[in-house]
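Hi,

Apologies if this is the wrong queue. I'm a grad student, and the batch job for Putrescine transport system permease protein PotH from Paracoccus haematequi produced an output file that my downstream script rejects. I'm not sure whether the problem is my script or the file. Here is the sequence I used:
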Amino acid sequence: MRDLYARFGGGLATIFLSLVLVWLAAMVLAPNLMMIDYALRPNLPPAQIGGPQDLWSADNFLYLANEGVHRAIFFKTVWASALVAAVTLVVCYPIAFWMAQRATPGQLSIALMLVIIPFFINEVLRTLAWFILLAYRGPLNAVLQGIGLIDAPIRWQGDGGVLAGMVYAYILFMLLPIYNAIESLDKSQIEAARDLGSPTWRTHWRIVIPHAKAGIATGCVFTFMLAAGSYVAPALLGSPGSRWFTEIIYNWFFEGGDWNRGAAYALTLLVLCLAVVLVTLRVFRVNLTDVAK
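Support response: The file is valid. Your script probably expects a header line. Output copied below for reference.
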């Protein structure tokens, strides 16, 4: 705060802070307060809103607790989002390390270009591309049949298709934070560990990963939150047996017309996601300031 006033002066700094507070109030605080209000009220006809039956209660939350199918999908969404974050981490960590410590400037430029350019396309179109690729008579099955690995086409839509689509969709949010963290690591530390006879896995475990823990935590938090709140990938790449909790929320709002129950479901997902994020930061021993960097 003092740095802001020292750099921009009292008047300009006050304007900046006021704009931030207005944005937070209008785009973050107000919508969430409205969602809490909706979640605690019953779904009533317009004529009964504000009447004696329009009282706060926990009925919408209790409905989720007692609805076995929705409860199972809720917890499945949570652990599946954690799985998406874990797989994305496994995919991105070697690439980030190579980009930060091994790649030449020319190779780094090409790698960044190859990673970033696909994100110029809308997420829906990128997911549709995966839908075409994984289709029953799509290119993947055609190639696998052509080289003799499978005899008949495989239905890839389902949990596997959703996992692949989400890992691809959110890879950038995992890759760049880890790359930025590893880039600041002094290469002499890795060389010293190698000269002292440390195997590769121990060098990463004792030197690289502790140094990059803030980037890893940031990538895991971003990827988990995006996966838990995703709707496009489960809707296009999933199957009836791989429904996502966001699809149920969408159905309550736009098909069932019950905004109150939909708000309760959405609020429950939000609270649990925040809890998972805080636990993740605690495990990595990283605070929100490190994530913001």
